[in-house]
Design goal:
The complex is a heterodimer of chains A (248) and B (496). Chain A is an alpha/beta fold and 248 residues long. Helices cover 40% and strands 25% of the residues of chain A. The radius of gyration of chain A is 18 Å and the shape is globular. The longest helix of chain B has 41 residues.
């Protein structure tokens, strides 16, 4: 269970989060939706303990995230960023096994887990032997996901994981991710600006703008019972901007 | 076992002077021909006496340097001049006789021989042809020609018994006075770029270059009789050798003979040992030989020497510099301070840095290695710092999320990601150190610089090139080697 209680975060004069409260239901996928600068990525960083709130508290599994607890809490989380965030000097498989190495896993256990994850992500051994720059955007993203899942953390945090991909690959990966999240039954927090992605993956959605929560609910709630005109505006603006349905 | 012996032998040769010198007399010299020759004569006499082994630590910079080397025990004996002893070393111009000097040197643990028979006084020289044309006979005549261009050695320019005193005594006002090393000035005066220079009266070049000495009619220049300056400890430990030295040298050399020996080495292409041997045999040197063949053998030894200087100092700089760069990147404020200090070290001219090492570490390889390592530190530490700072912050955050721990993050993420920058720094350090290491010879550190210093002193372009050209080649070789090394050290995923 992840919760934010009236969290405010400033970067200099800019208010990134303005008294945000949020509950992430366990074992399901929650989407933080908003355009860039809405503060959604900052929420992830606060949950991870990469940044500390100026006011309010972030609670993970009943423990407040702070300097004393963050090292312990981060062990329960996997983190995926745009384009994978892979180490360019390590092969895909070395990227994936880095954390298990650090935990002193025996070789056999590492190999078995890699094979399991590779099957899940649909990557073969040859691909895993390549360096990140030799991989396609979609492959890099899958490797990033494998790395985050290596130690099987109960919480998975994804920051625009599909942001760097072209629309077709993106749609394909969205389906695969949806399937994956359903099987894994992990608590997932996914940050995106893409409404289709939010609709396809999020059981619940929090729409944010300018550091504030606008509405919290299912996709149907957002469409049918918009809390403010902004919700409708946000949903329709992107639908029109998407070239999926060319006008006659 | 053999490796251990080798390592110990290496360590011993690298130790600063003073440690474990069983039966060795270290002979020093300054870096001009006469000093080289006299030192070589001394060394050969020591070897003949058979009481101790002679170790040559010749070609040391100036008086201050040889003096400190002597007092610290890095050398035991070297040729000096009474005028220099009185004015520069003891700073008392009233000390005129050898006895007076000896009495004053005694409390310092030093002693001197009697005069070797000649005085090598300072003098001003002009081209004979120009002297005729302008009617220059005495130093005072220069007052009528302030347009003449002068080039003086830095010692002469600054010493009270040099240019400042001379100018005051004669009321001279030359408009253009430059600092130039002797060997260079000879070329400049011969080609007419310079008109007046300071020379030593026993200079072998004077006759050949058709230079004329201006008469010191107001008797400004003091007497510079050549003597041997030695540590008393050495003379007491090897009394027979010291007696032999005095017997062989005291009163045996007049100015003309010394000038001929100087000319032999300076102008006739004879090696310094040959000139020294010629004096000891009392005749002209044997025909043949020359510098060529001896040079080749020496070059091989010097290459090994130079390589040792570069590899050890760059190695030490890598071992120190990379952690320093890492620390600078970790602790930003302290890091800036640290990098500023190393940068400041870099602004000290390399030669000066080498000189500073002498009071701390004596002369020879040890201090040269310390100075060269300090010099190589900046590019390595700075590039490591720059490489670490250039790492994308997200990649470091991910390392924390993956719980790599500090050491693993450093070894598996930060250093590999900085590899290109670090290697560039090491490459810069290695290539520049090959060049800077040629200066080590000024403090007896050996290497290719030995030939450059000697070539400069003997005004011998071939010898200078024999030191400079291999140094340039070695720099190129290091560059090529590092291009290859890049392929090993820089992770494949980072290479373009």
């Amino acid at each position: 269970m992840i919760a934010l209680r009236e969290v405010t975060k400033r970067f200099g004069a800019t208010v990134a989060l303005d008294s945000v409260s949020l509950d992430v239901p366990p074992g399901a996928t929650h989407v933080l939706l908003g355009s860039s600068g809405s503060g959604k990525s900052t929420v992830l960083r606060l949950i991870l303990g990469l940044a500390a709130p100026d006011a309010g508290t972030v609670v993970v599994d009943g423990v407040t995230v702070d300097a004393g607890s963050r090292d312990r809490l981060v062990a329960r989380m996997g983190y995926v960023v745009q384009d994978g965030g892979l180490y360019p000097h390590l092969t895909a498989v070395d990227n994936v096994t880095l954390a298990a190495d650090a935990q002193g896993w025996p070789r056999g256990r590492i190999a078995a887990r890699v094979a399991e994850l590779a099957g899940m992500a649909g990557l073969d051994a040859a691909t895993l032997g390549r360096y990140p720059r030799e991989l396609s955007g979609g492959q890099r993203q899958r490797v990033g996901l494998m790395r985050a899942l290596m130690l099987d953390p109960p919480v998975l945090l994804l920051d625009e994981p599909l942001g760097a991909l072209d629309p077709i690959v993106r749609a394909e990966l969205q389906d695969q991710l949806g399937h994956l999240f359903a099987t894994l039954a992990k608590t997932v927090v996914l940050v995106t600006h893409d409404i289709r992605e939010a609709a396809r993956l999020g059981r619940t959605i929090t729409l944010m703008t300018a550091g504030r929560v606008v509405q919290h609910g299912t996709f149907a709630d957002l469409v049918e019972r918009p809390a403010t005109p902004f919700v409708t505006q946000f949903l329709t603006a992107q639908t029109l901007a998407t070239p999926a349905a060319p006008a006659r | 076992m053999r490796a251990l012996t080798g390592a110990v032998a290496l360590l011993v040769t690298l130790l600063p002077a003073g440690a474990g010198a069983e039966g060795v007399i270290r002979v020093g010299s300054k870096s001009f021909t006469e000093s080289y020759i006299l030192a070589e004569v001394v060394a050969q006499v020591i070897e003949q006496a058979g009481e101790a082994r002679a170790e040559r630590r010749v070609g040391l910079g100036g008086t201050g340097l040889t003096q400190r080397a002597l007092e610290s025990g890095a050398i035991d004996v070297y040729p000096e001049y009474t005028g220099t002893l009185a004015r520069v070393i003891l700073k008392d111009e009233t000390l005129l006789t050898v006895e007076a000097l000896r009495a004053r040197l005694e409390p310092r643990g030093l002693t001197i021989s009697a005069s070797l028979g000649f005085a090598n006084t300072y003098a001003l020289a002009v081209r004979a042809e120009q002297a005729e044309r302008l009617g220059l006979r005495t130093v005072g005549d220069l007052a009528r020609h302030p347009e003449l261009r002068a080039a003086f050695s830095s010692g002469f320019l600054e010493r009270d018994d040099g240019w400042p005193g001379l100018r005051a005594r004669y009321g001279l006002g030359l408009s253009r006075v430059e600092v130039m090393e002797h060997a260079v000035t000879y070329r400049a005066i011969a080609s007419g770029q310079v008109d007046v220079m300071d020379v030593f009266s026993t200079d072998g070049q004077l006759e050949r270059l058709r230079l004329r000495l201006l008469e010191d009619d107001r008797r400004f220049f003091p007497d510079y009789s050549a003597v041997l300056l030695a540590r008393r400890e050495m003379t007491e430990r090897f009394p027979r050798t010291w007696a032999r030295l005095r017997e062989a040298l005291e009163g045996r050399l007049d100015a003309a003979r010394m000038a001929r020996l100087n000319a032999m080495a300076d102008l006739d292409g004879r090696s310094v040992p040959e000139a020294a041997a010629a004096f000891l045999r009392g005749g002209e040197p044997a025909a043949g030989g020359g510098r060529g063949r001896a040079l080749l053998g020496e070059l091989v030894a010097l290459t090994a020497d130079h390589l040792l200087l570069v590899l050890i100092s760059v190695g030490a700089a890598v071992v120190l510099g990379i952690p320093m760069g890492v620390l600078a990147a970790r602790y930003r404020r302290a890091g800036q301070l640290e990098l500023s200090v190393i940068a400041m070290l870099q602004t000290v001219p390399a030669l000066a840095l080498l000189m500073f090492m002498i009071p701390l570490f004596g002369i020879g390889k040890g201090p040269a290695l310390v100075a060269l390592s300090l010099y190589a530190l900046l590019p390595i530490a700075r590039n490591t710092y720059a490489g670490m700072m250039a790492i994308e912050p997200t990649l470091l955050e991910i390392a924390w999320v993956l719980r790599l721990g500090r050491l693993r993050r450093l070894l598996r993420v930060e250093l590999p990601l900085s590899a290109i920058a670090i290697m560039a720094g090491v490459k810069t350090a290695a290539v520049t150190t090959v060049g800077t290491a040629t200066l080590a010879a000024f403090i007896g550190g050996g290497g290719y610089g030995t030939l450059i210093v000697r070539g400069l002193a003997l005004d011998d372009t071939a010898t200078i090139l024999a030191g400079a050209a291999p140094a340039a080649l070695m720099a190129l070789a290091f560059h090529a080697l590092f291009e290859l090394l890049d392929r090993v050290v820089i992770p494949r995923g980072l290479r373009a």
